[in-house]
Amino acid sequence: MTLEALGNIGEAAGAIAVVVSLVYLITQMRQNTLSIRSATYQSVVGTAAGCNQILTQNKELARLFRVGGENLSELDDDERLQFSFLCMQFFDIFENLYLQYLHGTIDTDYWLPRQRSYLALFSKPGFADRWAECRPNYTEKFGRLIDEGLASIQSDPNAEGVDFLFGQTSPERSRT
User: Fold this and answer.
1) With a cut of 70, which residues of the chain have pLDDT below it?
2) How many C-beta atoms surround the C-beta of residue 130 within 10 A?
3) In this structure, are residues 153 and 159 in contact, taking their beta carbons and an 8 Å threshold?
4) Alpha carbons 112 and 77: distance in angstroms, whole number
């Protein structure tokens, strides 16, 4: 075997090794992306579940959530402060969810129903009032998302809402 033939075999082996390495790297990147998306999803769900758990386990907070959402004037000063912090917690969760969606770590199929639910919740008078006060604390892009979503809900009397959270049933639901 000549030196030239050995060189050609070496080049071919090197090219195969490069291809195998690239395939391995692509596979690892896909697995890493899936792991990141899964961890993000779990984190978002866990955070929202934590808020829901607090409301389901604390009757006083659940009342504050319901009454404050409908009419802030029915709350005393301390309750309004508590309701404001509760609202900010929900705004923060929604902004995090939105940013994860923009970065591609949350799928559209997961994002759209949550967007509708949060916007319907924020359209309640107490939440809308707190949003107006808190808006400067959030990014402009997120602010536009909520503002446009609230305007859309207010202009559509048939918009899906969260009335069931406040002990009300929509006409469509009461017929079923």
Assistant:
1) 37, 40-41, 44, 156-176
2) 24
3) yes
4) 35
- pLDDT, residue 161, reads 52
* Residue 31: partners with Cβ closer than 8 Å, 6 or more residues away: none
Residue 103 is given by DSSP the state T
Cβ density class 94-122: b for 16+ within 10 Å, e for less: bbbbbebbeeebbeeeebeebbbbbbbbb
Outline where DSSP puts E strands in 31-176.
none
Among residues 45, 155, 59, 134, which one has the least CA distance to residue 93? 45
Tokens of 39: 């961890």
**Domain locations in the chain as residue ranges:** 3-166
